[in-house]
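Incident log, structure service

09:12 report received: a user says their structure output differs between two submissions of the same chain.
09:20 pulled the input from the user's history:
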Amino acid sequence: QVQLVESGGALVQAGGSLRLSCAASGSIFSINTMGWYRQAPGKQRELVARFTKGGSTNYADSVKGRFTISFDNAKNTVYLQMNNLKPEDTAVYYCNAEKIYLREVYWGQGTQVTVSS
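09:34 re-ran on a clean worker, output below:
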């Protein structure tokens, strides 16, 4: 089992910045990918940013150039730096970890990001 604990969500004005954190614990040695998804009211959950153990990253087109995903190996923590936030970034942000070969998917509890115009 993998436990994911997010933090960092807040209310921020448009143009502002936030950094989300997701601390992973438990059986983390087989994790292949980690990333962030978000879900706005009335919408489906969507990928925001993700990286793989092989070093590749990918971002949703809507956040490219504004958001950056990173990982601190020593702390087993993945971060999402969000700059130039827009009202359309308002959503609950979920941390995700996957063990592809074991077909296991883990989610954090979510953290609310609200961007006011």
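09:41 both user submissions now match this output. Likely a transient worker issue. Closing.
09:42 reviewer note: The two ends are 40 Å apart (CA to CA). The longest strand covers residues 18-26.
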